[in-house]
Amino acid sequence: MTLLFICGSLEQGKDGVGDYTRRLAGELIRQGKNVALLAVFDKGVEKASTEKQYDQLTPIPTYRLPHSILLKQKKQLAKLYIEQFNPEWLSLQYVPFSFDDKGLPFRWSHVFRELGKDRKWQILFHELWVGRQGKNNLKTSILKSLQQNVITRLIKNCRPELVHTQSKTNEMALHQLNISASVLPLFSNIPLCKSEVEKEEEYLTLASFGILRECKQVRALLKEFKLFAQEKKRKARLLILGKSGALKKEWIRICEQNSIAVKVVNHLTPEEVSRRLQLADIGITTLSMNLVDKSGSVAALLSHSLPVLCLTPLQSAFGITANPAIAEYKQGRLAAILAELPQNVQGYSLSDIALKFQEDLLQTQAKQTTLP
């Protein structure tokens, strides 16, 4: 299998989709596939750049086109690179703002159609359109409608053999546009550190990883968690990891008021994050259950065998996660909720997702060859 990933930018550490694509490409190469990367709207370079990028010491052939050059020139350069690499599959990593500063990459659907002539397309929709949560003002409603139109044009022009997205919510949203998609789950960006970690058994530890959002149930949860820990003859502790945001101070204050131990660690390597997550017993997130599938932080908690509690109540039943290790916290029911969660929690590793990605491509290809 020869595969070319196409995304907006590949500036390392500054573009989440680019970082995701690089990791997936690196793992596919380690699994024996011929893979390269192409960035067509890259703000990290000033001229077309051929280079090697790396994932876990795995070199990945990479071609980056600056966002500042004309679309016509980008098309010519991209076409030449594609012809030279000669991939069987083109994989488009789609985010509307990755290909246009206003989030309206209308012209790209025609460009991609030409670039993909006589090749197979797979499209992964990382983001769809604005205005998917709550009420929208007129400007947001117009932009939402236009971005939906971009996606329908893209599907019409590229006619992809396979469409992926990363959450049930997105899958259902695409279905409303009559686009059939399957879920390719998000893998954890925090590999499990296999060096021995000694767990502190005197503590029962809640772990939060990533941004803390406004949530009315924090105080109730922490109070109930302290009582739950006492029943287990252990001390309650909250572990806050990563860039947690301004609300961190409020969480710390609630812990201090309730005599709950709290540990805050901001700047960590992936290995250090992994070691600390292995000290925890339960993961928490301020996302609701129809948003967690898109969270890299939640993926990291799950991959470290932690069940996850969602602290934000559902606003809608649309696209609720099907993961049995994730539950919504309800005040007064903490013990019952935790008792219902599975004991053996397993998240998705990078290797798992790379294998599923290949399987989906091969199954799609097999269906095409058996059609009359």
Helix content: 25-40%
Give a quick account of the main beta sheet: strands, pairing sense, barrel closure. Answer: 8 strands, mixed
Unreliable stretches covering 5 or more consecutive residues: none
How would you classify the helix and strand content by structural class? alpha/beta
Portion in beta strands: 15-25%
The end-to-end distance, rounded to whole angstroms, is 24 Å
What is the fold's blueprint, element by element?
Elements: E1 2-7, H1 16-30, E2 34-42, E3 49-55, E4 58-66, H2 71-85, E5 89-94, H3 106-115, E6 120-125, H4 138-158, E7 162-165, H5 168-175, E8 182-183, E9 203-209, H6 218-231, E10 235-241, H7 248-257, E11 261-265, H8 270-277, E12 282-285, H9 296-303, E13 308-310, E14 326-328, H10 334-340, H11 350-370
Helix pairs in contact: 1-11, 3-4
Give an overview in words.
- The protein is an alpha/beta fold.
- The protein has eleven helices and 14 strands.
- The strands form two sheets. An eight-stranded mixed beta sheet has the order 3-4-2-1-5-6-7-8, sandwiched between helices. A six-stranded parallel beta sheet has the order 11-10-9-12-13-14, sandwiched between helices.
- Helix 1 (16-30) packs across helix 11 and helix 3 packs parallel to helix 4.
- The mean pLDDT is 91.
